Amino acid sequence: MRKLMTLMVCLATTLAAGYAHASTLTVNAGGDLQAALNAARPGDTILLQAGATFTGNFVLPVKSGSTTDITIRSSAADSSLPPAGVRMTPAYAALLPKIRSNSNGAALATAPGTSHWRLLFLEFYPQAGTTTADLLELGATGTHQNTTWQVPQHFIVDRSYFHGDATAGQRRGIALNSGDTQVINSYFADFKGKNVDTQAICGWNGPGPYLIENNYLEAAGENVMFGGSDPSVPNLVPTGITIRRNSISRPMAWINQGWTVKNLVEFKNAQDVIVEGNIIENHWVGGQQGYAIVLTPRNQSNTAPWSVVRNVTVQNNVIRHISSGFNILGYDNLAPSRQTENITVRNNLLYDVDSQYTSSSTAGPARLAIIGAGPKNITFDHNTVDNNGASTIFIYGGATPTGVQIVGFTLTNNLLKQNSWAIYGDAIGPGQPALAHYAPGATVLRNTFAGASPKLYPVGNDFPTVAQWLADFTSRSAGNYTLVSTSLSCGAATDGKDIGVDYVELNAAFATPPVVNPPVDPPPTPQPGASTPYSGTPIALPGRLEAENYDKGGEGVAYHDTTAGNAGNVYRKDGVDIKASTDTGGGYIIGWTTKGEWLQYSVQAASARTYAIDVRVASNGAGGTFHIEIDGVNVTGAMTATNTGGWQTYTTLTKTGVSVTAGPHVVKLVMDSIGASGSVANFNWIAFR
User: Fold this and answer.
1) For residue 185, which of 513, 629, 507, 552 has the smallest C-alpha distance?
2) pLDDT value, residue 401
3) Which end of the chain has a smaller Cβ tally under 10 Å, C or N?
4) How remote is the C-alpha of 530 from its chain's centroid?
């Protein structure tokens, strides 16, 4: 068949005042993408044929006097793709043009000094044998970018899909070495490797500012990292970094697959940073000691002594299913650096911080934080932390030119457990002696140290028994860490709030902000988790959720399934395994379930009330365990599927006393473990009554 026209240029109406030019350049399958990139002028749109593949090492060239974006996007209609502010998912892959490399270079890179490009509705993935490359390189390193004028500027990456090879992985999604760049509403998956660092996003030779917002970010090495290689531009520190409302995660199934796992978020050279409103989850001891968020200045090759981590705020995040929380280092222990300073960790919920999360025989530290080498001005305020490590905060000396003491250490209004030691100083011991040695003059006030002796810690704190501490939570077993009204921690903080997390503020950080002056796309419809109801309308509560009618949105957003395709090949054409049911009422069921999989349902509760939740299950042999979450909170605890005598012989399991407020919610069915049957269970429906 003759190839489609390679390049069609047609004049379009000027889009807005101030646009010097506004044409549409259409590149169909087999067309010359680089020719279109070279021909485009500020204000133009390059329309790539939906579903077509463009293979090469493409370059975004410099456009003289450019102050208006050139947009590269799919030819698919806006109405068939996620609207502005809504995250891309793999479910839209058929509508996305694919850009991939034909060598170990990037599929798309930038010329020195180029600016004002917008990438929209695109898919980037590797060709076989190119997994050691970056998919998208914004900026460069070495002699290609060792002066500020060479830094490319003003990029928007919006609603795009980046992924590695499911089997072989991929080194990196975006090398973020540009200035003034937004990566928003996009989806990154399968950035993983063995004996090699991998990242969804990594920047080290760009000045910023950066906005990384509302993405799914999946990687093994570090999901997001700044630093790690020395910048080629002298005295450069990536500055003005906002990481907001992302899902920063990795599949728990990777724990036994040999990928090199290091951290979830890492800063080695960065300043003026805000990390807010994110789900940060699924981390274990692997290639490093198992800290989810790492703030350690690193003059990696001993050519950047200006490297620093400072002015970082981590607030209003949910951090869970991890082997440990924060690793904060005052100075690089291998080469000269500047001092880490002004680190604030506030109003975060950390739970399921557990020593079991390890891929080796070494247990996870299961701490809130480890702090060493004398950083300056470190604050932990209003955090709720449920961990089982020996120490909750561990402080040590380390290599430092200014001494090991933390000048300006503040620990206020936190809900903490003692475990063995709430605060422990290396070679010093627990409590006051550790603070006197490593943090003299520290402010330690209005915290709970559950199970600790008051003799060990400063006055002005609370020392409930562990049983009292646990009883203060609405439902710890269900993941609900709000305080009961009778808790002595209510209203007892230094600012008059409850000790621990302010949940009004935490929940507000996850809300989708309004879109101001939206472009061509319609404004977003906020949906928790960015999925949408299967029928178009949330399921009414009280009512029944048919298991097969999980939300639309695709893998990683509306569901997670560990195998490709629908094993039953009925009802729906995505990755969830569905088969016909012989249970009363017929219909379909979800089968072939295994640990780590989940399904999501958008619901609307008519009024605030307490429900009983019924789950209709079947198992041919002893089944596994599962739980149900509402808005990210485990409300049932572990439920076990019993042996019903057959895969189509059903029983109903019930959990009572589940409180649900009026309004919209997201219900999530999560598979925790398989049983002797080799599966969790078959699921027919979930009923709220």
Assistant:
1) 513
2) 94
3) N
4) 13
Distances (CA, A) of 616 to 75, 270, 281: 44, 50, 29
- State how far the Cα of 285 lies from the Cα of 357, in Å rounded to an integer: 6
Q: What is the pLDDT of residues 555-608, one digit of tens each?
A: 888 899 988 788 888 888 888 999 989 887 778 999 999 999 999 999 999 888
How far is CA 140 from each of CA 147, 175, 199, 239, 242, rounded to the nearest angstrom?
11, 8, 16, 17, 21
- Cβ atoms within 10 Å, residue 529: 20
Q: Return d(Cα 614, Cα 620) in angstroms, integer.
A: 20
Partners of residue 372 on adjacent β-strands: 329, 396
* pLDDT tens-digit map of 474-499: 988 777 899 999 999 999 999 999 99
Per the CB < 8 A criterion, the answer to whether 665 and 605 are in contact is: yes
pLDDT over 70 (residue 202): yes
Q: Which two tokens stand for residue 65?
A: 């006097």
Report the C-alpha gap between 178 and 109 in whole angstroms.
Answer: 11
Sign of the torsion formed by the C-alpha atoms of 382, 386, 391 and 395: negative
What pLDDT, on a 0 to 100 scale, did the predictor assign at position 131?
A: 85
Residue 376: what are its φ and ψ, rounded to 5°? -120, 135
Contact 677, 593 (CB under 8 A): no
The two structure tokens encoding residue 592: 């072939």
For residue 358, give the DSSP letter: B
Q: What's the pTM value of the predicted model, to 2 decimals?
A: 0.75
Do the bridges between strand 45-48 and strand 682-688 make them parallel or antiparallel, or are there none, so unpaired?
Answer: unpaired
Residue range 617-629: average pLDDT? 94
Residues listed for the chain: 689
Question: Residue with structure tokens 């490009």?
Answer: 117
Closest CA to 682 of 556, 565, 594: 594
